[in-house]
Design goal:
By secondary structure, the protein is α+β, with helices and mostly antiparallel strands. It has 3 domains: about 25-30 and about 175-260 and about 465-490, Periplasmic binding protein-like II (D-Maltodextrin-Binding Protein, domain 2), CATH 3.40.190.10; about 60-170, Dipeptide-binding Protein, Domain 1 (Dipeptide-binding Protein, domain 1), CATH 3.90.76; about 260-460, Roll (Dipeptide-binding Protein, domain 3), CATH 3.10.105.10. It has helices at about 1-20, 45-50, 105-115, 150-155, 220-225, 245, 275-285, 290-295, 325-335, 350-365, 380-390, 420-430, 435-450, and strands at about 25-30, 60-65, 70, 75-80, 85-90, 130-135, 140-145, 180-190, 190-195, 210-215, 235, 250-265, 300-305, 340-350, 370-375, 395-400, 455-470, 470, 490. The chain is globular and about 70 Å long. Residues about 1-20 have low confidence and may be disordered.
């Protein structure tokens, strides 16, 4: 008996030791925003793509971590000599998570649905040039455009262009069925979404067995969750002032990258008095961008003077024409017929950059006589009142869609800017394939919206993420709204 007891004393610690050093195979990701539903083709909310892009749903093309466009469900494509016909060759053996096969009919259904008259796709303009989608065989589909489109493969990489099966549409908002390396498992609303590895994935399998997206809106709670290691990765960490504590802790790594988030003081161009160019110009000169970056983002951010990412090769710095000048702002208001200023609304969504930035901007505007009535809205309210309802004077939001200056060519868009000249520039840019000419048109578009002071251009957000130091494969930069887990793993 004594021998047996001693044997157990030796074996039990060994068992615990092996378990203690077993490699982790799952990941918990913290996000500040919870999706309103789970259909990336049916809403403008970037929170949907943050969970599902490339993980659950895939498109014909996709974004790589450096922002380049690479093959997705389409392994290759041919383009006609006149640039109007794309023939996509699909990967074979691709299955949806319910076991059904993906084929060219699904591509036709998805593209036709996205461009339909009654579509709910928030980016319908991406598909406007498509005149016909034809199934050539099970794995080949031909897409015809009304004219050449230099952005077409780029457009197909958006989350709004993922391929879905007609049979799954009825329940897609609650039960998304895609083709990606992870399968949707569970959504505990108000708390988390759980994904599990797709063992039947057609491509390179995921290295993780599962992932949980935990929704933590409060910055203090986000800090506590990371410090307790209840969360392994926090994308777009909401409290930049606390990053220094993570940087000094060897358990963590802070990633400071770039993203596509042009943060703007969006202006309702059809509402009085913002339909007056001088008022919009006065608004721009009343804003001290650096004070907003310092006060709301603790110094993380790049000032912008137009709606274009500074890391883009075609970017031009136009901040000088809307520099902080409150005296000029007052003069312009008087010339516009508002010597005593006016009152308007400032409706703010939940993120800290909007709430904190809103308080700073409200104070700056008051100095020139513009009084703002602040309303703090949840995302669902913001989407309903501001984005869809256009019931606002001013708002602050970060536009995180990649290369999205084309939204200014859509008069029905929520800031309701209607310039035929600008629309022609975007039309020419879309049709142009020559890189030199495209760059020239991009620069012209940037200058036009800066000259028209369509919005108050504030700053480009830095991509700030905190991760467990043993987690590898997380994107440092964010060329699209995604938490791509397809190559993420633990290094022990």
């Amino acid at each position: 008996m004594k021998f047996i007891r001693k044997l157990f004393l030796v074996i039990i610690p060994l068992v615990f030791s092996v378990n203690a050093f077993a490699a982790k195979t799952d990941l918990t990701v913290g996000l500040q925003l919870e999706p309103p539903h789970l259909d990336p083709t049916g809403a403008a909310a970037g929170a949907i793509d943050q969970v599902l892009y490339s993980n659950v749903f895939e498109g014909l093309t996709r974004f790589a971590s450096d922002g380049s466009i690479i093959p997705g469900l389409a392994k290759s494509w041919d383009v006609s000599s006149d640039g109007t016909v794309y023939t996509f060759h699909l990967n074979q053996g691709v299955k949806y998570h319910d076991g059904s096969d993906l084929d060219a009919n699904d591509v036709k259904f998805s593209l036709d649905r996205a461009r339909a008259e009654d579509t709910t796709n928030a980016q319908k303009a991406l598909f406007a040039g498509i005149t016909n989608v034809e199934v050539l065989d099970h794995h080949k589909v031909k897409v015809t455009l009304d004219k050449p489109n230099g952005n077409f493969l780029f457009n197909l990489a958006w989350g709004d262009a993922v391929i879905v099966a007609e049979e799954s549409i009825e329940n897609i908002k609650q039960n998304p069925i895609g083709t990606g390396p992870f399968v949707f498992d569970k959504w505990v609303q108000g708390d988390r979404i759980e994904l599990k590895k797709n063992d039947a994935y057609w491509g390179t399998p995921a290295k993780l067995d599962g992932a949980t997206f935990k929704f933590i809106s409060d910055a203090s709670a986000a800090f506590a969750a990371m410090m307790a290691e209840d969360v392994d990765v926090f994308k777009s960490f909401p409290a930049p002032e606390q990053l220094v504590q993570f940087e000094s802790d060897p358990r963590f790594k802070v990633l400071i990258g770039s993203n596509e988030g042009e943060t703007i003081l969006s202006t309702n161009n059809k509402m009085e008095p913002f339909n007056n160019l001088k008022v919009r110009k006065a608004l721009a000169h009343a804003i001290n961008r650096q004070a907003i970056i310092d006060g709301a983002m603790f110094g993380y951010g790049t000032p912008i003077g137009t709606h274009f990412a500074p890391h883009h090769p075609a970017y031009i710095d136009l901040t000088g024409q809307s520099q902080y000048d409150p005296d000029l702002s007052k003069k312009l208001l008087a010339e516009a017929g508002f010597p005593d200023g006016f009152t308007t609304t400032l409706k703010l969504p939940p993120p800290a950059y909007a709430r904190k930035g809103g308080e700073i901007i409200a104070s700056q505007l008051r100095e020139v006589g513009i009084n703002v009535e602040i309303s703090n809205l949840e995302w669902a309210q913001w989407l309903e009142e501001v984005f869809r309802g256009k019931d606002y004077g001013l708002t602050i939001v970060s536009h995180t869609e990649p290369f999205d200056i084309g939204i200014y060519a859509r008069p029905e868009y929520y800031f309701q800017y209607d310039s035929k000249e600008f629309q022609k520039v975007i039309e020419d840019l879309t049709a142009e394939t020559n890189p030199v000419q495209r760059t020239s048109l991009m620069k012209k578009a940037q200058r036009m919206i800066a000259d028209d002071y369509v919005n108050g251009y504030l700053f480009q957000r830095a991509q700030l993420s905190v991760i467990n130091a043993k987690v590898k494969g997380i994107w440092e930069n964010s060329p699209t709204q995604a938490t791509d887990l397809t190559s993420v793993y633990w290094q022990n």
